[in-house]
Design goal:
single chain; two-stranded parallel ribbon; 3 helices
Length: 98
């Protein structure tokens, strides 16, 4: 997508949400550079004006928090999966070799 925008194959892009627009801060930085060059970027589920300082600040704050929220979500998923798998099996104590 970024390559197509940089090549001028599209005037802009509509993305689902800010948290889905970048995998890491480098991607967000690249997206910011495109916005600075006049490429239109809009989010379907968030009304953020990336051309205003306040809108850009709000989006930047959300983007900066993405790695932390992703790590928290991953931890929650691992804990839930572990808890579910421990309930799915019956554990019998090992017999001693006497």
């Amino acid at each position: 997508m970024l390559a197509a925008l940089e090549a001028g194959e599209a005037d802009g892009v509509i993305m689902h949400k800010i948290d889905r627009s970048a995998r890491n801060l480098r991607d967000w930085s690249d997206l910011g550079e495109l916005i600075d060059r006049g490429i239109a970027v809009h989010f379907a589920h968030e009304s953020v004006d990336l051309n205003s300082r306040g809108g850009r600040l709000s989006a930047d704050i959300q983007a900066v928090s993405l790695p932390t929220t992703s790590a928290i979500s991953a931890t929650k998923v691992r804990k839930a999966s572990s808890a579910a798998s421990s309930r799915a099996f019956i554990h019998f104590p090992l017999r001693s070799a006497t």
